[in-house]
């Protein structure tokens, strides 16, 4: 009996251990499924984070480029402001230059000796103003004998001419001027329109 009881006890232990092994296998399977599910979730989260990082990097590059463009644009605006800050003053001075040139022209027509001193004073004053304008990069526009260009010339009349071809400046009533590369006053001109036939 004791042998039989022992065998029964061993059988029972074997059954219990088989049951516990089956439970362990089931738990291991569940753990593996759970681990693979977590790994998949971690991988998907990692991909999402990588995509977000890439998107943020692209935004950073774009913002950096926009900021560089902004700095260059502001630098150009400051430079233009410095270059053209005196434009209104220079425009006002151009009428003084025009009047001095007219006075010189009128004094040249006079043959009086007294007018020579005045003419010399006018010439010296005009030369000094032209030096100052040149210092600030103000240059006159050459118009006489040139082809009419509406970007630089303002046609106030047309005259027939056999000496000049059509659309050529034949008379300059008022000089035009440039400040650096910007037109500050167009030349007022008469333009040829061919022969008077």
Account of the 3D structure:
It is elongated and about 160 Å long. The protein has 197 residues and is α+β, with helices and mostly antiparallel strands. The chain is built from three helices and six strands, in the order H-H-H-E-E-E-E-E-E. It folds into three domains: 1-84; 86-136; 139-197, Head domain of nucleotide exchange factor GrpE (Nucleotide Exchange Factor Grpe, Chain A, domain 2, Roll), CATH 2.30.22. It has helices at 2-84, 87-109, 114-135; strands at residues 138-141, 153-159, 169-174, 176-179, 182-185, 187-192. The longest helix is centred in the N-terminal third of the chain and has 83 residues, at 2-84. Helix content is 65%, strand content 16%.
Low-confidence stretches are: none
Radius of gyration of CA atoms, rounded to a whole number: 47 Å
Give the averaged pLDDT, no decimals.
Answer: 84
Q: β content, as a range? A: 15-25%
Helix content: 55-70%
Strand order of the largest sheet: 1-4-5
- Total number of distinct structural domains: 3
Shape assignment: elongated
User: Distance N terminus to C terminus?
Assistant: 152 Å
- How would you spell out the order of helices and strands? HHHEEEEEE
Task: Name the structural class.
Answer: alpha+beta
Would you count the extended β strands for me? Answer: 6
DSSP helical segment count: 3
Largest sheet: 3 strands, antiparallel
